[in-house]
Amino acid sequence: MLELRNLTKTYSGLHVASSVSFVARPGEVTGYLGPNGSGKSTTMKMITGLIQPSSGQIFFEGKSTNDDPMAYRQLLGYVPEEPYLYTHLSGIEYLVMVAQLRGMSRAIATERIHGLLRLFELYSDRHVAMSSYSKGMRQKILLSAALMHNPSLILLDEPFSGLDIGSSLILRSLIEELARRGKVVLFSSHELETVERICEHIIILHRGKVVADDSIANLRTLMHLPSLEDIFAQLAIERDYIAVSRQIVDLIHA
Ligand code: ADP
Ligand code: MG
């Protein structure tokens, strides 16, 4: 179980994440939703340890993640929203580098890397520099890198962005399968349809604050709203998007 307790991050006095508390359980997919700038990526980076919270604590499997950061990192798989990929490397070179950094044994790493490249249909491009990969191909490499050491906690920051339909379908069932195998899966997305289909539990963030933390079924009943999109619009979208879209079209017609 992953537990965040009053996690706060301030930049120049501004609260980007404000006392964020929630629990993500093994065996279920937790969706982390919120409009752009609401603090999703910041929270994810705090969970990975890439940035330090201003205050608050993170627990995984009952232990503070600060107790033994090295051990915690071995349990973690993370797909960042804006990855820094060494694009001059080929897909296979990158994965081998990640495996070495993780201290994986050569035999296991080789077997898993080759298997992942085949399953993600990247095998024939494995020696090509990633600079010529499509967004979807890069995403599959990042997923492979995040999963190859069989982590218990999987953080996916907007993993569907830029994926074609085929890759999205694979990723969706992959997320479900990982949860079924008892992993804690937290993924942020604005793909409401996807979230609605695969998440047992959703957390909605608005301006750095948790405004909803419940099952989708409960949220629907509570708010008398039929779809997640309606719930999301009510809780987290302040702009009148119909008016805004009219203004955009008016503007280009003027
Ligand atoms: P989301 O992932 O939900 O779109 P982010 O966590 O990326 O949101 O960002 C939340 C807010 O924090 C944004 O307003 C963003 O501009 C701000 N922010 C993020 N990182 C920094 C930083 N390093 N310094 C200052 N402000 C930041
Ligand atoms: Mg983000």
Molecular structure report:
This protein folds into 2 domains: 2-75 and 151-253, P-loop containing nucleotide triphosphate hydrolases (Rossmann fold, 3-Layer(aba) Sandwich), CATH 3.40.50; 86-150, no CATH class. Helix content is 42%, strand content 24%. The protein is built from 10 helices and 10 strands. β4 and β5 form a beta hairpin. It starts with a strand and ends with a helix. Bound molecules: adenosine-5'-diphosphate and magnesium ion. Adenosine-5'-diphosphate binds at residues 11, 16, 34, 36-42.
For the structure shown, list the relevant keywords:
254 residues; alpha/beta; Rossmann fold; six-stranded mixed sheet; four-stranded antiparallel sheet; 42% helix; 24% strand; globular; binds adenosine-5'-diphosphate; binds magnesium ion
User: Do you know the CATH topology of the largest domain?
Assistant: Rossmann fold
State the CATH architecture of the largest domain. 3-Layer(aba) Sandwich
CATH superfamily membership of the largest domain: P-loop containing nucleotide triphosphate hydrolases
Helix content: 40-55%
**What's the number of extended β-strand segments?**
10
* Helical run tally: 10
The largest pleated sheet is described as: 6 strands, mixed
Q: Which blocks of ≥5 consecutive residues have pLDDT under 50?
A: none
Please give the alpha-carbon distance between the first and last residues.
Answer: 55 Å
Ligand types: adenosine-5'-diphosphate, magnesium ion
The overall number of domains is 2
- Following the backbone from N to C, one meets helices and strands in this order, namely EEEHEEHEHHHEHEHEEHHH
Shape call: globular
- Rg (CA only): 19 Å
Structural class: alpha/beta
Identify the CATH class of the largest domain. Answer: Alpha Beta
